[in-house]
Structure formats: structure tokens, C-alpha cells
Amino acid sequence: MSRETQADSSTGSVRRRLFLGGLVSTLSIGSLGTLGYATRSPAETLEVRVWLSEEAARYDGVDDRLLEYLDALLGYEYWQLELSYGGVVSASTEDGARVTINGEWPRILAAGALGTRDLDPAADVNLLVTDGQMTTAPTGFALPHVASVGGARYLATLPPFDDLETVLDDGSIHRVVENERPTRTIQILLHELGHALGLEHDHGVAFRNGDAVVATPMLSSYAWDPSYDGDRSRCGTVYPSTDDRERTLSLIFSGCAQRELEEYNGGFSL
Ligand SMILES: [Zn+2]
User: Where are the membrane-spanning stretches (predicted)?
Assistant: First the structure.
């Protein structure tokens, strides 16, 4: 059985920044500027737009289901969430990682920002969902403001968000889901979206719930990946041992990640 890992390695942030350097030399600096690299005070609004590839758009209702989940999961009190569906994007590949790694999705957004293409990029996150495979890493990829992920066929089978409500052992209500393909796919989507907003893997946490270990979106399957070398979040939460414990997923960003998001101001230092 294949083991899914996340879209990038623990050196993802370095790789993303190196890649961005290449992107800057490929495109004009001005086109990137219009994608929102200007620094501003902490965001009062968060503009997130979702697009579907041609294959992803073949699944009925996947756009509505995604917006329903993102509306529930990104609706923090510190910003006004402006969530929208951008439409169908024709790309040369359905691979959810490659379409960004090869520069195609960033170039499409840049063309939209420049007005040479009929596509309107959002200020904060531009997420392209494809029907790419979800078995071999990388399955998605992110740059500042830009993200893509595969798995539309699995996302289309997600239950209504409200059906996911789980009462944890301590009595708190959470969104803990089984480590199954559709729920793993939506968590990876959230993981890439988090990267697009500046979050890193160690903003994530893992915690015990009964006999299970729960991993939040930024740590995700790194919680049980022996090659992942972090043992605690950057906020100091030590990760539990996962030996012989059921692996489950939370769709809610950790408190550490949420505090970082609260500081998000629309800019990134390069
Ligand atoms: Zn990652």
C-alpha cells in the first residue's frame, strides 16, 4: 500500500523561495507585484479564489463542496473571508503539483493580473484544484498566494461539512476525520493553502485522542513520517509518539497556525 506524503519536503520553504527567485527572473517583476507582494497592515479581509481544471470540473458539485468546507474552516474572527469560485482553467497537465512547479499556474495568474488573460486573481490565495493523482508525492504545491492540488474525484465524494462533527474524549468538539482518501485530500488542500499564506510544517501539531493520534493540516502525515526531523511545533507543542496508534486527521489549523494567520498581512519577505 502506498504511503501518502505531503507535497514537499521539510525544506519546502527554502525550495519555494528558490523557485520563486526563478519565477521572478522568468516573469517580469512588475507582473509579480500585481499579484500582491506589497506589504500592508494585518489583513482585514482574506480573499481566496478557487478554480477547477477541466477534468476536475467534470465532477458535479465539487466547487460548491469546496467552498462549503473553506467557508467553515477559514472563517476566523480576525478577518472577513471573501471566498469565491473563479471558474474552469485549461492547463497542460492535471498533475496537482506539476502545474505550479512548472510555472504554468503562476504564469496564468500573472497573465490575468496583467489583463492579457480573462482571469481575475485574488489578493491572497489562488487555489487550482485538478484531478491529479494523490498516491505519489508531490500531490500539490504552493508558493506565496499560489497553490494547486489534485484529487478532485475524492473531494467530490466528501460528505457535507456538518456531518464531520466529532466529540473528542475531552468533550470538545472538533473536526477530526478518518485518514481516508477524501478526507486526506481535503487536508492536503488545506496544507497547500496554508503554505500559500505563509504557514510552514512546524506550525502544525499532533495530539492524542484516546488510542489515536490526530495531526492538524500543516503537520499532516509528517506526524508519522520517520524521516521528518521535527519533534515539536514552533510554538513548543511536543509531538506524541505515533507507534501503534490509529492515525487520524484534523481539518482545523492548530492554534499555533491560527496565531500566525492572524499576523498575515498579505506580504512575504523574500
Ligand atoms: Zn508542505
Answer: 18-38
Give the number of domains in the chain. 1
The boundaries of the domain holding residue 129 are 12-261
Return per-residue pLDDT of the chain as tens, 270 residues.
Answer: 333 444 443 333 333 334 444 444 444 444 444 444 445 567 789 999 999 999 999 999 999 999 999 999 999 999 999 999 999 999 999 999 999 999 999 999 999 999 999 999 999 999 999 999 999 999 999 999 999 999 999 999 999 998 887 777 787 777 889 999 999 999 999 999 999 999 999 999 999 998 999 999 999 999 999 999 999 999 999 999 999 899 999 999 999 999 999 999 887 643
Q: Is 88 helix (H, G, I), strand (E, B) or coil?
A: strand
Q: Is residue 95 part of a domain?
A: yes
Cα(63) to centroid(ligand 1), Å: 23
Apex CA 149: angle with CA 57 and CA 221, to 5°? 135
Ligand 1 centre to CA of 27 (Å) is 24
Distance 227 CA to ligand 1 centre (A): 14
**Residue pair 143/20 in contact by the 8 Å Cβ criterion:** yes
Distance 220 CA to ligand 1 centre (A): 9
Q: Which set of grid coordinates corresponds to residue 237?
A: 507543542
* C-alpha 37 to ligand 1 mean position (Å): 21
- The CA 149 to ligand 1 mean position distance, Å, reads 11
